[in-house]
Amino acid sequence: YLGFRITPDIYLDSSGNTNVRMKYLYAAFKKDELGFIGKPYVEFGMAHMPWLDFEENINRFRMQDTMFMERNNLFNSADVGVFMAGNFGEELPKEYRETVNPGQAGRWGSFGVGLYNGGGYNQSEKNSNKVLEGRLSLRPLPDIVPGLQVSAFGLSGKGNVEDTATLDPPDWEVLAGMVSYESRRLVLTGQYEQGTGNQRGTAVDASGTALDHDGYSFFTEVRFDEAQKYSLFGRYDRFDPNTEDPGADVTERTIVGFAWQFLKNNYWVLDYDRLDHSADGRDTEDRVQLTLQIKY
Fold first, then answer.
1. Which of 61, 79, 174, 259 is deepest in the core (most CB within 10 A)?
2. What's the CA gap between 259 and 62, in Å, rounded?
3. Sign of dihedral through CA atoms 266, 256, 195, 74?
4. How does DSSP classify residue 106?
């Protein structure tokens, strides 16, 4: 009924020095079932936020880089607070969980909801505001198309900047939806988000008012063999950081990659990542990356 997680995060600071910080640091209380809710659990501490852990169970290539909304600096994956999650109904059959995806495998879907300080795992809390976040995922056809899910995510709070006598922290709101499909050989997702501001409180105009933003992302993975050792994947993101300004730098990101899973959850990944800018004077960014993931 009780578990713990401690995960360090190693990063380079602006001076090029290597530092270690905590990314996850929580205790989790769990049950087998609670009425209609299957495998409910509650995390206390530096806990998961509702969305990214769910999306990364569908798009398994986090080692390539962060997911769409985190990549555009809207929020990250963990924060100090309390997080509750679980499945709707019993789990899908063992064959689905072993050959497609064991994560959040509730027959009718799953959910996650949390209340957090708002700074994320990489910043201290700078104001007294708390952030409410939630995710709801439903499987409309569990017996016919078990891999089909419709998901919604939302958060509401203030950006993580100091609250002064003359300036309130900027708004921070996100509303997103995603349709996803998973099978043994194919994964497809499409998502759309719109909102105001961001977690750090930096998406603001000259007066400190939060900017409206929106964007969408598509992802696909084609698995060449039933053992899922070899995959070709692609992703396309479009993000507008200021929908009220026609001159804002709208970005378009294209990712294509090839993955070899040489041992369960251990990968070689070769990918090409291209970022195009709409603003004049911003060069296109290109990156080729080879990644080895060791997971145990």
1. 79
2. 12
3. positive
4. B
Q: What is the pLDDT of residues 50-77, one digit of tens each?
A: 999 999 999 999 999 999 999 999 999 9
Nearest to 213, CA basis, from 237, 244, 185, 247: 244
Fill in the amino acid letter for 124: S
Beta bridge partners of residue 191, listed in sequence order: 178, 217
pTM of the model: 0.94
CB 110 within 8 A of CB 85: yes
Which residues, at least 6 apart from 158, have a Cβ–Cβ distance to it below 8 Å?
118, 127, 129, 131, 168, 169, 170, 171, 172, 201
Residue range 185-203: average pLDDT?
97
Please, where are the H alpha helices in the chain? 52-58, 68-71, 94-99
Distances (CA, A) of 183 to 110, 125, 166, 259: 18, 41, 54, 17
Minimal CA–CA distance to 104: which of 21, 178, 39? 39
**Cα–Cα distance, 151 to 180 (Å, whole number):** 8
Distance (Å) of CA 8 to CA 4, 23, 62, 140, 173: 14, 6, 17, 38, 28
* Burial (CB count within 10 angstroms: exposed 0-12, middle 13-18, buried 19+), residue 287: exposed
